[in-house]
Give the backbone structure.
Amino acid sequence: MRDEDDVRRAQPRLSAAQITLEAVRLGTVSAEDLTIRRETLLNQAERAIAEGYPQLARNFRRAAELTQVPAEVLLETYDRLRPYRASYYELLAMAQELAARYDAPETGAYIREAAEAYRAKGLLARRDGEED
Amino acid sequence: MTDRERSKRFVRRGERAVNKDTYVEEAADLGLVVMDSPHDPRPGIRIEAGRITAIDGRDEADFDTIDRYIARYALDPAMAETAMAIPSLALARMLVDITTPRAELMALMQGCTPAKLCEIVSHLNVVEMMMALQKMRARRTPGNQAHVTNWRENPVLMAADAAEAALRGFDELETTCRIARMAPINALALLVGSQTPHGGVLTQCAVEEALNLRLGLKGLTSYAETLSIYGTDEAMRDGDDTPWSKGLLASAYASRGIKIRFTSGTGSETLMGYESGQSMLYLEARCLVMVKGSGAQGVQNGSISCIALPGALPGGVRAVMAENLIAAALGLEVASGNDAMSSHSDMRKAAKLMLQFLPGTDFITSGYSSMPRRDNMFGGGNFDAYDMDDWLVIQRDMKVDAGMEPVTEAAAIAIRRKAGQALKAVFAGLGLPPIHDGEIEAAALADDSDDMPERDLVADIAAANALLEGPQTALDVVKALDAGGFADIAANVLAMQRVRLAGDYLQPAAVLTRDFEARSAFTDRNDYLGPGTGYRLEGDAWTTIAGIPQARSAAEMVPLTSGEAGVTLVPRPPAPPSPREVVIAVGPAFATLLDRTLCGLSHGETLRALIAGIESEGLAARILKMAATADCGMIGYEGAKLSGSGIAIGLQSKGTAVITRKGLAPLNNLELFGQAPLLSEAAYRQIGRNAACHALRTPPAPVPVKVDNMARLRLIVHATLMHKREIAAIEAGRGPQEMEARFDA
């Protein structure tokens, strides 16, 4: 059973073979069952490495982490990464939260690198009385 | 120059479509330069202790956001050492060389800086670029994407158009909205239509990112290509994004099993005013290296909506081809533009298209307007519903698969109707505003949205909003289709959800087959290494493309006979030759195996006209049927030998005629009428009269011949088939037969 306090998004319960029209008629398939799993994306990442696509593999690994992040958090994270939306420390906090709460260390590192770049290139939020 | 002083020919030429396009001279300081701007940096890289510390002449301390991103995520320092040391000309030659495999080049290209990539392609002419693109394309099997939109936002028409586009073989369908709030219903109608003829077609609804992702999460769409990027920091900021934000979005989509590609293209930075005098291709190369770094599987480029801007400049179309090639060389899926209006001139548009059409790309267009242009809500429609037959015929001409299949009118109507009925069931099941049978019928037969009855748009928008905010997902669509008696479409829509579990269609250049198998750069690897390798259009695929509905069988084209020759030739004993006669020598199939000329005159009408012409000069006609030759000159030659006046008219069954005189060589003659399709009854009458004039040694008059430059082109197949039949009627060694003409009443 999932911990009540677990903020991570539920993972699908069914395998692809179990997702049939018959199962839909019986009501045993939920929308959650129709999403990709973390381990599937990690396997796709390995495949990408083998095929000579290391950057694609890194994207798949970040995606694997994000399978556990709820949609609202995903959208919020994207929005905060847009120019002038967040301060340096807000970005760092976001990176930390993703890494710790959602078990998303690579995504966390990616956002930390964004924070550094945004600080260097003036892309952070400009708020009165706040140091970047 | 005043109008009176102008050349009439220049005036007429000035009115041609190509002269409605705009052309501008290069001006690098204004960013009006497609390649090799004096402000472009020289290629270069510095690597210190495995770390990139300079790119294209810029030190790390001065890196802009994009430099920083590509140094960190795109360029592999070890490969960069190798690749940057190879002269660009050598790399250019490797791109074209059929013995250097794609994988080897792809690895090298990932070590190249943007300026290096530009320098490499600048060594190639467009034919070499086509060679290179054929090899570097990610997926072995070329594909295509269609736009499906309509101005009225009518969901029934949307579903019908989607179904027909899927039937026509498009791998991906893209819609958008005129009214943003309609997005959920447009996405739904597109999904249902797309899965109606068969499964596996990917769909997207191009709207703002957050909404886009929500539609994907509901399972209403399966891919997105709205992730626009630009080649300068300023333009990126104008687009309200950074390389990091777009990169995160790419991962976010992948985390839900949704395919994405980025969008970029030459000219966008210049148009936004942020190009710093650098060439359009250099800035695009920066975009493409950035896309690579983000880990996105692909890109739509080829200038896209800016196409007319590079198109206005010298070498612009070549530069656009070069950007497609750079993307492919980096291992990215390429949806290669050809979507936005690129010219007023059909010739110019087609010539540009061939650069992608012939070598093949992952998607030849980033959106073929599958409906008439006026319903295209992308503001584009470079090629639209009316151009489809041209596209199909060019595929058949060139034996090239450019991602479209011919369909019959009956099949199109049937599938459009079925899509409308299926959508009606879905709307009923989801509690959306009802669809009436009249709408389904209208959509089945519609040309564009003006053919659709009015719908309550306000109610549809409210329903779209409820659909977005409510709990319903694609699973409810599956249930509604199943309950409505569309188990086949329900199974296809469900399978489109199921494929997300495997994630195979996140692989580079992935599309789905009709059996929902991913066809990608991993599973359908482009293995082109020269003749005999790579994708070859053959077997069933070629049969399909060759089989355009307009093509008819030879038998259908020239029926054995119309059964109405209008005359019967009856053998009779030879009469003694008379100096006051003209021989009409007819071909061996005359009024038997054939009975009409190419012009459509019956043989009776033709013969009657010739005789009337001869008799109008007081001479008599004598009819001989030739058995041993089908050649017009020989028919006349043999006839003249037997003519009392020495004059004969040779007449092939297809209507070609000659007037000749005894003693002239077979290929010589007095008058030749080689263009049978142009010969009317009046012409044959004059031919008869002229033959008589030649016999009487009086001057002949000109034969009235229509000028129709298209006749030969229109009727050449008929002429060939008719001539074949005339030849089939030959009886070698048999002499001419004297005939009596018995005309039908």
Notes: Chain B touches chain A through 66 residues (CB under 8 Å).
